[in-house]
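Q: Structure tokens for this one, please.
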Amino acid sequence: MSRGGMPVFVLLLCIFCTNAWAGNTPCSGRKGGVDRCEGELFLCNDGSISASKKSCSALYGGRSDARPQTLLQNADGCACSTGTFCTGPRGGVYCLTPSGNKSYKRK
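A: Here is the predicted structure, written as tokens:
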């Protein structure tokens, strides 16, 4: 490879490595990144819970014990931003995103 082509190669390598790394981070893509940790869970900027199996508190520091979470039977007050979760009719635990969609907590 000639010396003139080396900067272009390095630039392309950086672009491809960045794209591969971004796909493996919690709350990537349309979710807009990590807003904050809720115990072990990642709360995304769009208000949903990340499906990542990584531990948010281990990755970003902080206390390793999860805060007790309230489980409610009705959808009033189950916003993801409040840290409260509802229990669905089949036992799934979820919170409501700002758009009104359910974001389920991984098992």
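A few notes: The mean pLDDT is 74. Helices lie at 6-22, 56-60.
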